[in-house]
Amino acid sequence: MQRYYDTLLEEQRGQYTVILDKTWEDLHPKDCFDDSVTDIQDICEKIDRGSLDWFMLRCRVFYEGVELASDYIGGFLYEDSREILKDGVAEDIIEDTIRQAREAAVEMKRKFQELAV
Predict the structure, then answer these.
(1) Which of 89, 75, 78, 79 is nearest to 33 (CA)?
(2) What is the mean pLDDT of residues 20-29?
(3) How far apart, in whole angstroms, are the C-alpha atoms of residue 96 and residue 75?
(4) Less Cβ crowding at N or C end of the chain, within 10 Å?
């Protein structure tokens, strides 16, 4: 099955290009919560009607068109998925993925130096 992503953010962060997008969540909310915690039936109905968005995020970091790092996290529930850009959650994921990209770049540099010898 092919997975489709909707881009929520694409921007330059220093020398990196950051793309944050979303796709459907694989886990059904019924598998994550029970009725003792919240009205899961109501939430599921709102997701099915499209008044709530239940999704996973993917963050990718590129340098010169080469993907250096990516991260996925799921289980987000918002009325509008773009709200995630305003509450700090997206920023945390972006910062973590940029950190992974920097680490990958350092490792790639080391490996390329070994090749040059």
Answers:
(1) 75
(2) 92
(3) 18
(4) N
